[in-house]
Amino acid sequence: MNPVEFGLAAAVAVGLAGTVAALLVPRPARPGVTGACVAVAGALGLTAGIAAVTGVTWSVHLPAVLPLAGVDLAVDGLSGVFLAVAGAVAVAAGIYGIGYARHGLDGRAVQAAFPMFVLSLLLVPAAGGVGTFGLCWELMALSSLILVLAEHRRRPAVASAGLWYAVMTHLGFVAILVGLLVAAGPADGGSFAAIRAAAPGLPPAVAGLAFMACLVGFGSKAGIVPLHAWLPRAHPEAPSHVSALMSAAMVNLGVYGVVRVGIDLLGGGPRWWWLLTLAVGAVSAVYGILQAVVAGDLKRLLGHSTTENMGLVLVGVGACGLFTVDGEAVLAALALTAALLHVIGHAAFKTLLFLSAGSVLHATGTRDLDALGGLRARMPATTAAFGLGALAASALPPGTAFVSEWLLLQSLVHGLPAAGVVASIVLPLGVAAVALTAGLAVATFVKAFGVGFLARPRGSGAAGARESPPTMLAGMALAAAACVGLAIAPMLVLPALAQVAGTLTRTGPPVSGAVTIELDGVAGAMSPVLLAAALVAGCVVVVVLVRVSAARPARRETRLWDCGGGPLTERMQYTATSFAEPLQRVFDNVLQPVQDIEVTHHRESQYLVEAVAYRRRVPDRIERRLYEPVLAAVAAWGRAGRRLATGSVHLYLGFGFAVLCGAFVMLVVTR
Amino acid sequence: MNPLGVAGGVLQAVVIVGGAPLVVGLMRQIRARLEGRAGAGVAQPWRDLRKQLRKQPASPRGTSEIYRSAPVLLVATTLVVAVVAPFVTTASALPAVADLFVVVALLALGTVMIALAGIDTGTAFGGMGASREVTILALVEPTVLVAIFALSVRAGSTNLSAIVGSVLDDPARLVSPASLLAAVALVVVIVAETGRLPVDNPATHLELTMVHEAMVLEYAGPDLALVELGSAMRLSVYLGLLANLFVPWGVATGPGVAALAVGVAAFAVKVTLLAAALALAEVFLAKLRLFRVPELLAGSFLLALLSVTTAYVLV
Fold first, then answer.
1. Domain boundaries, chain A
2. Closest alpha carbon to A405 in A348, A337, A349
């Protein structure tokens, strides 16, 4: 039996069993059973994905399952990458969810939606036709919506987040359907194979419309600026293991859609498609990380960082398309390899970061960085996990994102000599955007880790924190292992990814080597293993030299220097807000923060100050400029419509008559 | 990994560890003389290090292993760069690590560890220094990478040895506008990254102006020695990179004791000259206000971007 077929079929069976079990099993055992089913389904999906990446393909047409179109499933290398990522994230999230769900998340609906969500994440990349794809996509949207709303009784913000998410995901779905249907119009049926065969015959304007609609729809799922508004709302309000699944597995499918439709189904396209993709990617990366660096909410910060990382992936995809247009197949494959590696790396570290943020939330009851701190002594495992994730996310060696960003920069560097005039302007700007993103990501994660976990607790929640239960730690440990593996030995996955990228861009794999990543076709080599080994060796040499030369090795505990003013208090520490203040001031024109300072004077003398209140908010500027006018217009339209509905039946009958007459007149005129 | 690379790598590490405090001492001495003071002598930083190493290690209450391991990592990252980058010889001990992006990221890792240690102390000074340092780091990164981009386009690779080799093969490229613009951009970056005037004043202990010193205020004893040594090594490494990226002559390309000796001498002369020039310039410069520093860095970013564009247009 085909391993892909077996893995997928078994995953669907186990996932459905998990849903049924969640509805039947009594409350105490429910999280355990669902979590186990999700983890097993994820593992099966992972094996199917790995089999597909290594070259096993599988496709099937089941006409009896769905009326009219039937179900088409087709798994190739590209599907395999996203299938494997979704499966791996599900394994960690499923195990973690067992412990996490004890706190009011063991209701029937939530527990039943969890396996359905994972199932839909596995099926979307496996879909091989427009109908099947739409069905799985909608299943994913609905099941994730139920999960986002899981804690709606506790916080009023959840309902608003759910509304934003529901509306934007469905508008995105409409755009995707329009795009896919336009592309499928001249094709013989709705299967992807038929669309691929008919694509060369599409007029450029029609193909452009299809691509644009798909870019909008998939971009909104990937949280790309300016369609990102739902992401920093829904991610913090969802339960943390669901945030991990959404941020590490679901948003990837937006990238999958762009690659599948743009590069695979429509077979490339003109230059402007990819310039646009690259531009929105670069803007998203910079804007996302700028919002993250000033964010004070730990999970919101991670949500903005997802926008940043998807932006970087789209820079890679855009560069791939651009190089394909210029006939530089090797560079195109290299850029796509970098993008796919970044998807995998991002999935690993974002899972880890969201799971550890959930562990913090669970233990302290707050997500506000200004009230955290001092978790190193109280939650050592969670602190280690978050620190590892932060290192991976900030593109520093030896970290996960460093390897993929290095590959991405290599493709951009080598693209310049061969580029035309447009690309010679775009590529340096792309490098600058990636570089600014890398720098700001360092600042973001130094803030998140340093202020959130080190020093002393700034609030009572953090002061009384306890380490999380073992199942949660086990989920985090799995994600941490993936992070370390990808950072030290990316060559475990890179050859397979390079093969997938090479196949899509119709050339050979752009990367080879075992210990060292060697680029094929262009000069460039880098070895994460040797780099890590050199760092370890360097540390050992330094420690040994210090031990040898130091006279008195025993370490002494001392007081902090307090300027002679008595012991320092927790309130004297820098907070997340004060940490990010210089950067906020530097990017004042972009962020446009709103600050109020209220000084209350003493009643007897206005020269004496009684209290100072400082409030700062960084509202999302794009949201204010773009969404508020649209929302206001929709509301005005609704109010105008209300005038028609006066409650008079005669008037309604009159409307009916008028519309009927109008339709007849139109028929007469057009015939 | 060839014998020349390994020998050169060990030699480079020894030269930089031994010479970096002397470079700092030289800069202080030049400054002292120009200000009309006698100065403490070129070897004073080494005497300070010896004194600090003999003291008992101390950690403030409430700090974690981040605080204790940061100085080690600061020195270790710089040491790795000192071994792999082409300072004395173009044959690298680990060619797969001698990539310009890797080197820059490694040096940034050291900065980040010290910033985390600053936050870890839980004092206002530590947080303040970390916040300022990370702000500067975030703004310097784009300039560095774009300047690297300009240099690599010329060489067709981001490998340091390849870049240095391409300049040796074709010296005419050095006087191109692209190269000069990139050099100016990198000078600004190096001043910012190593905490020199006008971005940071290494001699200050005034809270309004401190950046690097604020982060490391709590360190004492051997830890402080490592921090000081690490900072001095970073300065030498950056100056050495600047020297060999733009004026690589003297660097050993073939095996032989004589070639290595010439390489060491050339490297020492180049770094000394650059350090002397930097010290000379610092006498005439005042520290910029912290919020004027981004303007300086934005200017250098513009130069780096222009450098890439001219590299493309004027090739």
1. 1-264, 270-344+368-471+485-536, 625-670
2. A337
